[in-house]
Design a protein that fits this description.
Layout (H helix, E strand, L loop, with lengths): L7 H14 L1 H15 L5 H13 L7 H9 L5 H27 L10
Helix pairs in contact: 1-2, 1-3, 3-5, 4-5
Amino acid sequence: ANSTGLSFGEKTTLLLTAASADVVVAKTMLAKNIAGKFGKFSALDKARALEVLVDQGLASVIEPVLWGLLKNSQETNVVRLSAAQGLMPDHEAAVLAYINTQYEFSQGVSGGR
């Protein structure tokens, strides 16, 4: 099964380190596999993976994934905010509009019952 002797977390760390150093690794290994194995990543590894992909200029390649993560209420806030950050350069107005709709309910609400 696991011929490398490395845990999934260790493999993830190696992949993220390699992807941050080499755009080809980021594009061929991380971006193409993000949909399948991404659910197994820890929240911090997901956020780091998104940061690496955005830093490598690949936000447009994973744009549907970024929107999906941003809109996934089951996802952690750190991952949702990382997705929003990746979308901001090209979709600032849409991202801000979405975020505003999510937090509208808290506006105008006083502490009363």
